[in-house]
């Protein structure tokens, strides 16, 4: 039985940045046997790791019957490890999730817990942005909680643009190609991408499909009234091939990891990177100076495509969150409630970690002007498409990243990529 109530206060500093996280979330110390919570996350950046460890330590200090075992994994290593854990039927209590089809497939297999009733208590569910919580919800059941939501955009080095005589970021696909060539002519590597990890490159193909076909094209392919071989998806591949053929990427991009690619722009060795809202923190962590580009960094939205059906404001994005394993204890869910409290999310946001926050009331704490722009662009979008490798079932998402890599490698045509994705979709969904 829970005997006393105390207020959790988190203070101190993170490893890479001073971080004071004050939490007034109410918890209760339990006088009973130890409860072990397993938590897997992918926040490998030192400041984020330290902040999350501090949150766990202070929760345990206030709840001495609880033990929290944290496993921190790089993105691709996490995906492999969580797949193995799910196949064994023993998921961790709390794990990184982006919501969407991957999480829902786990739900269909009975591997994750529906926490809808927990979210209904004390307005916890109402504290989240609807779009963020919606990524974890299907048919009235919610299988996790978000903590960050944002979008993918281009990050660029303003000084390198000026050095090449470029006065403004490109707003159309043709202008992006011209910008890349202008940078090359000035002896500057235009774009960095970590295509060894595959998922960074799929951002290009998905964004181009969003621009060429809009929401209608994806909905048609997903529901079976259309197909991933329809013209917008083939055109997306054609436009991407056009970019790849212009050779704008850093040497060794096909084998580079995301973090290695981030270091290239962070150290001033490339001008642009297409990446999510976490990019500034990763760039800072991967830079030789430990400071990233600072005031040299700028952003612009993914360019419009001529005669495309998608609106220029439509975005690719998603959110980081916590899936809840099937065997999670009430204490594990209470800890996620604590992690996503308004107070903790506000402090994490102010420290540049939970940015933009999925908790609506924490958004006022966004301090970085660039991330304020990201939050505004995401808010202005009528259509926010979750990354295909997470929205689609795992086998289909895998087909997307694997075959789009074929365009980067020059080994697959746009038509072959579209057909391979459609074949995988039909095999998985029976469409």
Quickly describe the structure.
The protein is of the alpha/beta class.
Please characterize this protein's 3D structure:
- By secondary structure, this protein is of the alpha/beta class.
- 45% of the residues lie in helices and 16% in strands.
- The protein contains 17 helices and 13 strands.
- The chain has helices at 46-62, 75-88, 100-108, 116-119, 130-134, 158-163, 173-185, 199-223, 231-245, 258-266, 279-286, 330-339, 342-350, 369-380, 388-391, 394-409, 414-429, and strands at residues 2-7, 26-30, 35-41, 66-72, 94-97, 137-138, 141-142, 144-151, 153-157, 272-275, 297-300, 315-324, 384-386.
- The strands form four sheets. Strands 3, 4, 5, 8, 12 and 13 form a six-stranded mixed β-sheet that branches. A three-stranded antiparallel β-sheet has the order 10-9-11. A two-stranded antiparallel ribbon has the order 1-2.
- Helix 10 crosses helix 11 and helix 16 packs antiparallel against helix 17.
- It is globular, with a radius of gyration of 22 Å.
- Residues 1-31 have low confidence and may be disordered.
